[in-house]
Amino acid sequence: MNKRQITAVFSHIPTIETDRLILRRLVPGDAEDMYDYSRLPEVTEYLLWSPHYDSLYTRQYLNLVQTQYRDGQFYDWGLEWKENGRMIGTCGFTSFDLPNNAGEIGYVLHPAYWAKGIAVEAALAVLEYGFRELKLHRIEAKFIYGNDRSLRVMQKLGMTFEGYQRDSMLIKERYRTIGVCAILSDEFFTLREAHGIPFGKKKSFFGIF
């Protein structure tokens, strides 16, 4: 895909359904749900951003996101928990390397929903979309050294750990070592086939990984 095509896709970001989640566009009405987790230090400890200091800040952020969606410059889905309709986190692409047909994914989840396989479920839906619809060849994910929870998610996605980049990012006035994991399109499809998981146009659940 080229930049024009990526912009066209994400300016009308599609809705994706999994077993327990609806991945959909973030809206200003998600402010209270987002603030409920984005204010927590344990959520942002291993992220590039700091806790939101009030719900107004979160609402202003979501208003900015609407502009980015319109311009096709924002690649994240909100994660709506089917059971109660709450927006419990986000998952999507953080960037694309279009000359090399590659992308990077990221995810954030409310701690009340940790250790339930939800991040894996959401990220696998995004991987499927990236490989099937965007025709990417490689998708990677990065984590700050020490974030073992995120590394476990990447391993459950079928990603290969490729190593650490020592002190490669200055985050919150501190140099941090970054781990890189990645999966290639043929590896992804081989894993699905090996586990006998059928493709659905807008459904993707790999709970057994």
Topology:
Blueprint: H1 3-10, E1 16-17, E2 21-24, H2 31-38, H3 41-44, H4 55-70, E3 76-81, E4 87-97, E5 102-109, H5 118-133, E6 138-144, H6 148-156, E7 160-171, E8 174-184, H7 185-194
Parallel strand pairs: 5-6
Antiparallel strand pairs: 1-2, 2-3, 3-4, 4-5, 6-8, 7-8
Question: Could you give a short description of this structure?
Answer:
The chain is α+β, with helices and mostly antiparallel strands and 209 residues long. Helices cover 34% and strands 29% of the residues.
Task: Note down, in words, how this protein is organized.
This protein is α+β, with helices and mostly antiparallel strands and 209 residues long. The protein has an eight-stranded mixed β-sheet with strand order 1-2-3-4-5-6-8-7, with helices on both faces. α2 crosses α4 (55-70). The protein has helices spanning 3-10, 31-38, 41-44, 55-70, 118-133, 148-156, 185-194, and strands at residues 16-17, 21-24, 76-81, 87-97, 102-109, 138-144, 160-171, 174-184. It is 34% helix and 29% strand. The longest helix is centred in the first third of the chain and has 16 residues, at 55-70. A hairpin with a 5-residue loop joins β3 and β4. It is built from seven helices and eight strands, in the order αββαααβββαβαββα. The two termini are 29 Å apart.
